[in-house]
Every structure is written in structure tokens, then in C-alpha cells.
Amino acid sequence: MSKKNRSGVVYSTNPDFEYNDQEDEVETLAPPQQDLRIWLDRKGGGKVITVVKGFIGTNADLEALGKQLKNLCGTGGTVKDGEIQIQGDHRDKVITWLSSKSYKAKKAGG
After folding, report:
1. CB–CB of 79/52 below 8 Å?
2. For residue 21, what are the contacts with CB-CB under 8 A and spacing of at least 6?
3. What secondary structure does DSSP assign to 39-106, as a single string?
4. Each residue of 30-79: pLDDT tens digit?
5. Beta bridge partners of 84
6. Within its chain, how far is the Cα of 46 from the centroid?
């Protein structure tokens, strides 16, 4: 992390001061405690993506869930900014699969 991205510390007169770069990751909640929202988003060129928001847990667990959902839908996608993005409109399929795995999931947005 560059020094420019560090927020909160401008200057310290303490000679023993060390900036803490570590971010605390949240423990992954059990599937019945997760409250996921499934969105449909439009990207440039008229393309649509299915977005899964609201996952609380580690990035590794989010990546694993994203991989399972992409395999289920048979399409590409990505996991970034705490969201799972899947190419195409697969909301119904994703909600059905997540419900079968004990996740609380529902459609959101317009």
C-alpha cells in the first residue's frame, strides 16, 4: 500500500509509531445467517449481469461461492468489491440454488 492511500494519519511525533496496514477480515457467517440480495445490472453495450450482494465473510469464501455460482450458470463472471458478478440474467437459477444450500436470498432492485 502506498503512503498516499493511508488515511487518518498525517503526522506523528512518536518515534516508535508504526502504521498498521493489516485489515481485519470478518469471519464467514453460516449460510442460514447470510442475507443475500440478487440484483440485475446493465453494463455497457446492453449486456446484463447478475450481481449477488450482502455476503459477510472472508474473501476466500466469497471466491469459492462465486466459483460455484459461475459453474452452476455455465458462464463467466468475477468476484470484486465484495460482490459476485455473473454474466447474463441468472437470478432465478441463483436464488433456487442458494435457497437449496440454506442461504437466505431474494431478488432486489427494480
Report:
1. no
2. 1
3. EEEE-GGG-EEEEEE---S-HHHHHHHHHHHHHHHTS-EEEETTEEEEES--HHHHHHHHHHTT-EEE
4. 888 999 999 999 988 889 999 999 999 999 999 999 999 999 999 999 99
5. 52, 79
6. 23
Contact between 99 and 66 (Cβ < 8 Å): no
Cα–Cα dist 95/54, whole Å = 14
Instruction: Collect all residues with Cβ–Cβ distance below 8 Å to 42 and sequence separation of at least 6.
Output: 48, 49
Residue 103 and residue 94 in contact, taking contact as beta carbons nearer than 8 Å: no
CB atoms within 10 A of CB 88: 16
pTM, full prediction: 0.74
User: How remote is the C-alpha of 7 from its chain's centroid?
Assistant: 23
Contact status, residue 21 vs residue 5, Cβ threshold 8 Å = no
By the 10 Å C-beta count (0-12 exposed, 13-18 middle, 19+ buried), 5 is classed as exposed
